[in-house]
Amino acid sequence: MALIGVLGGMGPLATVDFMRRVVELTHARCDQEHLPMIVANLARTPDRRRAILGGDIDPLPALLAGIDLLNRCAVDAIAIPCNTVHHWYPQMRAHSTAPIVHIGLASVAALPAGIRQVAVLATRGTLVSGFYQAALQARGIEPVVPPAAVQRDIDASIDFVKAGDIGEGASRLGRALATLKRRGVAVAIMACTEIPIAALPLGDTSMTLIDSTQELARAVVAFAAERGWVRAA
Amino acid sequence: MALIGVLGGMGPLATVDFMRRVVELTHARCDQEHLPMIVANLARTPDRRRAILGGDIDPLPALLAGIDLLNRCAVDAIAIPCNTVHHWYPQMRAHSTAPIVHIGLASVAALPAGIRQVAVLATRGTLVSGFYQAALQARGIEPVVPPAAVQRDIDASIDFVKAGDIGEGASRLGRALATLKRRGVAVAIMACTEIPIAALPLGDTSMTLIDSTQELARAVVAFAAERGWVRAA
Question: Taking the model in full, what pTM does it have?
Answer without folding.
Answer: 0.96
